[in-house]
Amino acid sequence: DGWSAAFFAIASLAPSVLGSTANAEHFVLLPAMAGAFCLWDPKGWKQCLVGGLCMGLAVTMKQQGVFFAGFGFVWLLFKLDSKISLWNPKGFFASLRMTALLAYLAGVFLPLAGMFVWMEMSGTFGNFWFWCFDYARNYGGMWGWGEGLQHFWFKFKSVLLDHAPVFALGLFGCLAAWKRNRNAFWFVMGLTATGFMATAPGLIFRPHYFIFILPGVALAAAMG
Length: 224
What we know:
The protein is an all-alpha fold. It has helices spanning 2-11, 24-40, 45-61, 65-79, 89-93, 96-121, 125-139, 145-162, 164-180, 182-199, 214-223.
């Protein structure tokens, strides 16, 4: 944990991710990583509920937090009671997995529901919906796939060069985890893939969006 925190602290300060500025991405990752910590090896539905609450708070920080909430759900499907098939309804509904998933989903939706109610009661729901959904949808539709992929590489190569030693150590860590701890491998790969997906909506890649990939990379580097 100490090594991964150190790698993240160093990597997140790089100019290529505008790490010295307080962007919303930092405030997404704070509760999202707390949620991921709770979900790594949950012992019961209460831990899943807390993990869900953290992921729900991440979504309230910025829309891209929904990817981390989705990661938590998929990880629970993978992690909990894996011997019970999803295609066996009786076994599925009687399992720890179902209880955990329901607790997790309740945790995710509680902060969102609270925010929606608060906006409605304050009379600002219309403005909230416009800026968070209507405007975001139009902003995210400005570029096509070709432009978006070119923009991605143009921005990401700077991130890659700035963090080359950390990425190299992370690659080594993933190879080591594949041999020694498959759970850790899939968790880190899932978290990193989630970070990449969170940068991609609208195919508009701002430098600070790439902060989303750094937790997974830092964990991989720590394993390395």
